[in-house]
Design a protein that fits this description.
alpha+beta; eight-stranded mixed β-sheet; globular; CENP-V/GFA domain-containing protein; lyase; metal-binding; carbon-sulfur lyase activity; metal ion binding
């Protein structure tokens, strides 16, 4: 959106409908006013690089408002006291501003990082004043959306290089969503559009192996993932709601007693090359981001590296399984994938358990964590204390110049379901997304009978359960793992 050029203030109205807006932690609560005569308000789903990388969402949906009032009083809600420049004591909430353009400021919660407000401060006139200013709220933070707001079209599809989320969300109800190359009125791109090949498939310079890069808008958070390898099979994790809906599936099945490595794709392949990805509509994702749909890819922590090739650390710890793998590699003289000889030397001297700089952590529920950029507020990771070595990574932060915004040569998208559909604030939007996913599945799987995300047969295989590994000689297990890496 980079200033939301397509957005214009709603028409004046004698009546105003107010809807509560709130983030997950409740630190920021207020009411957004919409002109009653213009309901439902239609606005864009923006796919521009600034929106994606500053939010961690595949598409950003902001909706214009005519006023902002305090949650419990008919008094104006003051976002801050300095026209979007900085936090001020005059603000009624606790919001952090971030400029993504000369004219656009975004505000996120200082605690849970939910992105709640966008302010176009207008363009400077010759007299030094600004005109055309307006305010927007994030649709996912609204208490209700049906009859209030309605996505109308996609914009800035060109920035995705592969259509991004627009290829999955094609229509809502009976409304087909136009796919504009840039702002509304620009060229409409067809379904399946992709940028010329020379604009993608670019491997960043300086990498010893193939890696996929990620970054937030301000570049405070920069990291990369490697292709699946031997250590990618170390985690044990229950099945996600994407594969077995939690509200109707027996707990015994969800626990994944067969230790299926469902996050590696193709499923049950001897040499997987992709990771499992999908869209989520759960309340946690929505209220910690401010948007209705959060897109995640599941990646083992050992396959997530910082730009120096060091493995991702999200919790302070003196020692963990990954450090044992590193120590075994050091003894065998094996270089870790993606790390230079210099960084290997630095890793030996670096203290264990140092969190990635620039992250803000929020505990969304006991044992469940969200990580975002402390500066621009972009959602980056989600993880659980009971599953610390399998991380949800925000797909929207991917470097689209390598493989497009969907990174389909790296990610195997779930095309049968949206996670936690029953929690969606807008059932129509999720129904539209689900229909689009299934249509994409039919196109992709033309000539095939089933999709491997439709049914997973849980059987006991040769993989040793985690609880059994804990009873064995851990050193021998780690060394065996390293030997597999060397052979590969």
């Amino acid at each position: 959106m980079s200033g939301s050029p397509s957005s214009t203030p709603p028409p004046p109205s004698s009546k105003t409908t107010y809807v509560k807006v709130a983030c997950h932690c409740g630190l920021n609560e207020f009411r957004a006013g919409f002109p009653t005569d213009a309901l439902p308000i239609s606005n864009d789903l923006c796919h521009c690089s600034a929106c994606r990388h500053s939010s961690g969402q595949m598409a950003v949906y902001h909706v214009n408002v005519v006023s902002l009032l305090c949650a419990d009083a008919d008094e104006p809600f003051h976002v801050d006291g300095s026209d979007g420049q900085c936090i001020s004591p005059n603000g009624d909430g606790d919001l952090i501003p971030y400029r993504t353009s000369e004219n656009g400021v975004r505000y996120s919660c200082s605690a849970c990082s939910a992105q709640l407000i966008f302010h176009s401060i207008g363009k400077l006139t010759e007299g030094g004043e600004r005109e055309g200013a307006y305010w927007c709220v994030a649709a996912g933070a609204l208490e209700r959306t049906e009859g209030i707001v309605q996505p109308g079209y996609h914009i800035y599809i060109e920035d995705t290089l592969d259509g991004g989320l627009a290829d999955h969300l094609k229509s809502i109800g009976h409304l087909k969503l136009p796919r504009y190359r840039l702002q509304p009125g620009s060229e409409v791109l067809p379904l399946g559009w992709k940028a010329p090949h020379d604009q993608t498939k670019k491997q960043p310079e300086g990498d010893d192996i193939e890696t996929l890069h990620f970054a937030c808008h301000c570049k405070t958070l920069r990291f990369k993932i490697t292709r699946p390898n031997a250590q990618s099979t170390l985690p044990h994790a229950a099945f996600p709601d994407l594969l077995y809906p939690y509200d109707i599936t027996h707990l015994a099945k969800l626990r994944n007693s067969g230790d299926v490595k469902w996050w590696l794709r193709p499923l049950n392949a001897s040499e997987p090359t992709k990771y499992f990805a999908g869209h989520c509509a759960c309340t946690y994702c929505r209220l910690t981001s401010g948007f209705e749909i959060q897109s995640w890819v599941y990646v083992p922590r050992g396959n997530i590296l910082d730009m120096d090739g060091q493995p991702l650390t999200l919790q302070e710890a003196e020692e963990d399984e990954l450090s044992e793998v590193q120590e075994a590699m050091k003894k065998l003289g094996v270089a870790r994938p993606g790390a230079s000889s210099e960084s290997q030397t630095e890793a030996a001297a670096a203290p264990l358990g140092t969190r990635m700089p620039g992250l803000r952590q929020y505990i969304s529920s006991p044992g469940r964590y969200r990580e975002s950029c402390h500066k621009c507020g972009a959602t980056a990771f989600a993880w659980q204390a009971g599953r610390p070595d399998l991380i949800c990574v925000a797909v929207a932060l991917v470097d689209e110049t390598q493989d497009g915004a969907r990174a389909e040569s790296w990610l195997d998208w779930c095309l049968t379901r949206v996670g936690f559909t029953e929690q969606a604030v807008s059932p129509m939007t999720v129904e539209g997304l689900t229909a689009g996913l299934r249509a994409a599945k039919e196109e992709k799987e033309l000539g095939k009978s089933v999709d491997d995300t439709t049914t997973i047969v849980v059987t006991t295989d040769s993989s040793t359960p985690v609880d059994t590994i804990a009873e064995k000689d851990r050193t021998s297990v780690v060394l065996s793992l390293v030997e597999e890496v060397v052979k590969a």
